[in-house]
Model the fold of this input.
Amino acid sequence: MIAGQVLRAILFDFNGVLVDDEALHQALFARVLREEGLSLRDEDFFANHLGLDDRRCFAAALQESSRPFEQPHLMRLIARKASYYQESIRSHGFQFFPGAIELVREAAGSGLTLGVVTGALRAEVEGALRHAGIAALFKAIVAAEDVNEGKPSPEGYLRALDELNGLPPFPPRLFHPHEVLAVEDSLWGLEAATGAGLVTLGVAHSYPAAALESAHLVVPDLAGLRLESLFEALAEASRA
Done:
């Protein structure tokens, strides 16, 4: 139930919601696999891997190719891709989606508590938020290194709830799941947020809106999105 409730916090996904780098991740993922003698079609990545963290992406690709691997090998692949990502960022910088930074600033200025729950590496997230000048606006960051199971497991969102409640500055009262909005661009992310009992907003940056219909509300993008209209739309969706 959404109507009549007050949302007190927003947890953002990172890749595909705040930062427009899904295509870069796909290209780097494919590059590392090519170096391992494997190939991945673009359509397979977006159908089966986008929304998963690097560990699960590489593990799935190796398993699909019947390629045996051990954990140290997997970690080397992740580290190599992370190195390529940093090289690209040093050359081209971070590209935020239109409206993303504005929405973050408006939410923080309105007194909402903010966090990030992502399958990205912490260094990537913190670097992007610093680059945009909004790092101090986020109370919690739950990144790939912080969980045993990435999305669609709800572990990351449950940990973020714990951090919202357990890290200073402490809230005047506990955040409950129905008071927290998760902003996601993939089915995996929406499943994770729903599993944690959160209100969900799907953003059709990476998939068509129809593919995100499990969200409480779906918007085409963040450009021009304002909190008042967003909360009104969530309430209307609940009534409908």
